[in-house]
Write a structure and sequence with these properties.
single chain, alpha/beta, TIM Barrel, 5-stranded parallel β-sheet, 12% strand, globular, signal, GHL10, Divisome_Glycosyl_Hydrolase
Length: 384
Amino acid sequence: MSLTEIRGVWLTTTASNVFDSPENIVEAMDFLAETGFNAVFPVVWNKAVTQFPSQVMLQNFGVEINPQYQGRDILAEVITAAHRVGLKVIPWFEYGFASSYNSNGGVLLKKKPQWAALDCKGNLLNKNGFEWLNSLDVEVQDFLLSLILEVVNNYDVDGIQGDDRLPALPSEGGYDKGTVERYKKKFGQNPPQNSKNQQWLQWRADILTDFLARLYKEVKGVNHNLLVSMAPNIHDWALKEYLQDSQRWLEKGLVDIIHPQVYRRDFNSYKSIIDRLVKQQFTDNNRVKLAPGVLMKLGSYNISSDYLLKIIEYNRACGIQGEVFFFYEGLRDNNNALAKVLQKNYYARSAAFPSLQDLNQGNRSQKKAISQKQGLIELFKRWF
């Protein structure tokens, strides 16, 4: 019986040399395929630069590509090397609506200060060191969408990916003049100073959900088979802190695959979150879309082989067919120790990446159930 699973890994520009040369990229893709992976999520947008020659960035900010890769096209190199060995390529727009990190907005807001997100005191929105663009603003949304469409129109990718910064905005934001006026027009009063006020929170989250709906429609308009992948923070913490309403995204069918960042360093913490997601957010119909984000390496932290195997075992026991690891270099540490563990155990058998048809079976079942229910209602109306 053939196996279908999501086995992915994120490729970063930080603490990694994969992108340093075309040879490194080829070697990494070969290594991943041999280890049993079937998808890569290479970063294409971070720190206000792209990992591909971008006319959108050149026209708006005068910077065509990350200067480190001038004269190359990292995304094109990854696609060629990955597809050659059967890996899906889903570019990751890591920074999303974040303008900079500890840089007072960086080059984006220096050129376009009107794009800044503001807190209730009128200051540039900063959360955990990241400064933010105003993701509630249509012009800012248009900019990011144009970057995404540039990729799907010009490259043979298998989808695109947002994360905890796309679509997102720290809930402390939204106090710019334009957003305040929109809120006032709808509710007849200024937004509350309490950024967690339920009405204010949900209204802003709905704007981001509407943006995701637009993104989904535009991407599918280019090629219906492209996958829209999201790696948000965990619901509903992500809603309260970053206006990410992933529950509504699922209900509206705006994601094909989703990778909540279950970045926990002990099994009991991981298990409790998975239990909550499976019981409260994911149903039998849409669980096929779920492949949790798993923290493999960060700074000096490396997951243990025992914990790694426990995670995969528990995922499968919960009916979760896949995971995505942050990040690639964790597989290579200690003479490829964790890659060997995967290759000898759960990834020993090769697995096909799920088709769009596989991923949307739940959506069709849900729509069929709704249609049948509506049919019964109409029948009862005629009878009575």
